[in-house]
Amino acid sequence: MRAAAIEAVVIGASAGAVQALLHILPGLPATMSVPILIVVHVPSDRSNALVTLYRDRCRLRVKEAEDKEVVADGTIYFAPSDYHLLVEAERSLALSSDEAVHHSRPAIDVLFETAADAYGPALAAIILTGANQDGADGLRAVAAAGGVAIVQDPATAQVPAMPAAALSACPTAHVMSIDDILSYLVGLAAR
Which SUPFAM superfamilies match (predicted)? Predict the structure, then answer.
């Protein structure tokens, strides 16, 4: 699986996301220059505590994505609660309060599809644990644009529905354990 040309990583997760990301994000080295954009399904009626949770545990900068912000290398961005996170053609971020997708805002599909348009084959997309089918269409869009599609092995996911749906939509995706996903991302930092 190629890593040399990857310029950005997008990750989508839902139920079980906190534990999965606690396994991955703190393990990323400070030398990682690739930006990581993450959508986790969080209730719209509360503030997103994910940035606070991961900021002190990670060597990379962790922040909530802001509208019209230029994507910066070596930064982990979380979509804010109740906003879709999009990547614009010039690789800046946009926030949208458009309709929910798969009952979710932020929606993984919205991030993945817009990032696929912006980065094409220079994008890696990862679907982690979750309880619905959000991200399946987006992962297929990433693969169709020539990007790297990765799915957490449903057998190892806390909630396997989302990875299983992603594999059904994108059967060419690489199936990996959470440890292998971390190793792949660390490999991006080593290139």
Answer: Methylesterase CheB, C-terminal domain
- Residue 151: strand pairing partners: 127, 175
Determine how many CB atoms are found less than 10 A away from the CB of residue 30: 10
How many domains, the chain?
Answer: 1
Structure tokens at 80: 């804010």
Does the pLDDT value for residue 1 go beyond 80?
Answer: no
Contact 105, 134 (CB under 8 A): no
Domain that holds residue 41: 8-190
Name the active-site residue from 14, 81, 102, 137.
14
- Measured in whole angstroms, the distance separating CA 109 from the mean position of its chain's CA atoms is 10
87 in any annotated domain: yes
Q: What is the pLDDT of residue 144?
A: 97
> 41, 84, 104, 109: which is the annotated catalytic residue?
41
* Mean pLDDT for the stretch of residues 6-26: 97
The answer to whether the predicted template modeling score (pTM) of the entire model surpasses 0.90 is yes
Which residue among the candidates 103, 134, 153, 174 is catalytic per the annotation?
134
CA distance 176 to 12: 15
Residue 33 is among the residues annotated as catalytic for this protein: no
Residues 85-96 pLDDT 10s: 999 999 999 999
Residue 3 is assigned to a structural domain of this protein: no
- Does the active-site annotation cover 14? yes
Is 134 part of the annotated catalytic residue set? Answer: yes
Measured distance CA(191)–CA(182) in Å, rounded: 15
